[in-house]
Recover the amino acids of this structure.
C-alpha cells in the first residue's frame, strides 16, 4: 500500500513499498513541461532537463554526475513531456541514500554554467535534427501541431532550433524560479524500501533548499474544429507515415476508461481489429497502432501507421472504415472482455518494475492530486459496458472531429480532405 505525505512547504512524498525486489527507484516529477512555455522560450523545459546533467557544486562535471551511479550499477535518466518533467535513479536498495542524494543534488544544485549551456545547444539541435530526419517519430509532433496549432500544446517539446540558440542562463534561472518549486513537485520512492529508514526525515533534509515560490499556471488549451483537417509535411520518402484520429476529452473525464478499451479493440495489440485487417489481411504495412492521449485539458485517439506511398489512400479508407463501423455497430461482449483482460494483464506485467510503479503513482498525484491503485483502476475498467463503448465511439468518430497528419511525397491535401469527408 502506498503512502502519501505533504510537507509544510507543499512538497509531496509518495512511497510505494514492493515485496520480493531489492531494486528501488527515486523519481522526482515537476509540473513543468512544454505546455508551460511561451513563444520566446519554447524548448526551455527540455533544455533545462539536459542541463541538470552538466554539473553541480558537489559533482562539478558530467563525468562526476554519471560516475556516481555507474559505480554502483544504477540506472538513471530524465524526460520532458507536455505537462511535466521527471528525473529518476534506480539502484540496489542498499544504495537508496546515494540515489536520494544524487537526484536531489541535480534537481536543486545544478550550476547551469554558461559555457556548458552553449555546448548543449549544439547537442539539442542535433537531437532536433534526429527527429526531423525520422518520420516515424516526427509525425507525432506534426499530429499535435495539427490539433492545437500555434499554442503551447501544439509546439514541439524540443523547441525550434532558432529558439534553442537564443536561450540564456538567465532564461533558465527564471524558468526554474517560476516552476521548479516545492508546491509543484512530487517525490516518489518505489520498490524494496528498507524498513528501518526514516524516509520523511531524509526527504526533508535532502530537499530543504528547494524553492518555495507558488508556480505560475499554464495557459488552457483552446480547441476549435468544425470540419476535417489535414496537415502534410512534404518529404521524399519510400514510405508515408501518418496519424489519423479524432479529438476526445481530458484526463478528468469519466469516459476515459471506455476510450482506453476502445483504442485497444481498434488497434492496441496484435489481435486488434486494425492489426488483423491492415497487416494480416491486406498486408498494407509493417506497423499500425491505435492509442489515446489524455492531457489535463484535452485529449485524442489516434491510429499511427506507415505504408507504401502508392497505398496511402487505401490505408486511410481502411482505418476510417473501422472507425465508422465501431461507431455504427459498437463492439461485442467478447471483444470487450478481451480488452479488459489485456489492460489488467499488461498493467500487472509493466508494474513488475519499480520505475514503472513510481511513474504510475507519481504521475497521478502530480496531474490529478488523486491516486488510484491498480486494483481501483481495474474496478473502473470492469465497470465499462458495451453501451459505454458505443456511446463514446458514436460521439468521437464524426467527420468534424477527424484529423490527418502525414509525412510523405505529397503536396496536394485536397484528395485527403475528401477521404475524411465521405
Amino acid at each position: 500500500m502506498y503512502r502519501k505525505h505533504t510537507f509544510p512547504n507543499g512538497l509531496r512524498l509518495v512511497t510505494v513499498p514492493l515485496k520480493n525486489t531489492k531494486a528501488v527507484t527515486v523519481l522526482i516529477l515537476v509540473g513543468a513541461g512544454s505546455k508551460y512555455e511561451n513563444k520566446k522560450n519554447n524548448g526551455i523545459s527540455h533544455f533545462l532537463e539536459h542541463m541538470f546533467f552538466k554539473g553541480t557544486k558537489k559533482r562539478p562535471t558530467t563525468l562526476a554526475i554519471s560516475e556516481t551511479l555507474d559505480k554502483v550499477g544504477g540506472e538513471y535518466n530524465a524526460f520532458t513531456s507536455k505537462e511535466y518533467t521527471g528525473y529518476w535513479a534506480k539502484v540496489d536498495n542498499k544504495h537508496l541514500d546515494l540515489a536520494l542524494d544524487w537526484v536531489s543534488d541535480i534537481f536543486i544544485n545544478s550550476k547551469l554554467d554558461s559555457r556548458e549551456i552553449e555546448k548543449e545547444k549544439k547537442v539539442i539541435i542535433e537531437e532536433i535534427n534526429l527527429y526531423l530526419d525520422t518520420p516515424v517519430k516526427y509525425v507525432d509532433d506534426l499530429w499535435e501541431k495539427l490539433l492545437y496549432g500555434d499554442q503551447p500544446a501544439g509546439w514541439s517539446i524540443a523547441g525550434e532550433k532558432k529558439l534553442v540558440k537564443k536561450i540564456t542562463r538567465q532564461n533558465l534561472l527564471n524558468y526554474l524560479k517560476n516552476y521548479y518549486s516545492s508546491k509543484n513537485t512530487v517525490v516518489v520512492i518505489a520498490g524494496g524500501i528498507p524498513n528501518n529508514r526514516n524516509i520523511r526525515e531524509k526527504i526533508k533534509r535532502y530537499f530543504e533548499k528547494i524553492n518555495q515560490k507558488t508556480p505560475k499556471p499554464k495557459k488552457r488549451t483552446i480547441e476549435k474544429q468544425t470540419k476535417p483537417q489535414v496537415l502534410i509535411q512534404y518529404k521524399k520518402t519510400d514510405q508515408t507515415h501518418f496519424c489519423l484520429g479524432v479529438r476526445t476529452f481530458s484526463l478528468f473525464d469519466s469516459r476515459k476508461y471506455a476510450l482506453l478499451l476502445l483504442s485497444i479493440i481498434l488497434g492496441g495489440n496484435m489481435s486488434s481489429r486494425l492489426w488483423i485487417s491492415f497487416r494480416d489481411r491486406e498486408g498494407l504495412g509493417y506497423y499500425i497502432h491505435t492509442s489515446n492521449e489524455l492531457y489535463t485539458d484535452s485529449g485524442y485517439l489516434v491510429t499511427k501507421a506507415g505504408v507504401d506511398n502508392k497505398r496511402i489512400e487505401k490505408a486511410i479508407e481502411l482505418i476510417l472504415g473501422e472507425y465508422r463501423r465501431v461507431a455504427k455497430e459498437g463492439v461485442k461482449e467478447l471483444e470487450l472482455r478481451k480488452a479488459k483482460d489485456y489492460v489488467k494483464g499488461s498493467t500487472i506485467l509493466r508494474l513488475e518494475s519499480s520505475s514503472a510503479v513510481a511513474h504510475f503513482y507519481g504521475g497521478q498525484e502530480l496531474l490529478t492530486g488523486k491516486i488510484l491503485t491498480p486494483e481501483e483502476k481495474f474496478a473502473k475498467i470492469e465497470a465499462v459496458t458495451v453501451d459505454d463503448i458505443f456511446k463514446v465511439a458514436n460521439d468521437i468518430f464524426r467527420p468534424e472531429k477527424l484529423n490527418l497528419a502525414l509525412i510523405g511525397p505529397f503536396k496536394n491535401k485536397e484528395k485527403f480532405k475528401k477521404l475524411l469527408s465521405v
User: Anything to note?
Assistant: The chain has two domains: 3-206, 229-421. The radius of gyration is 23 Å.
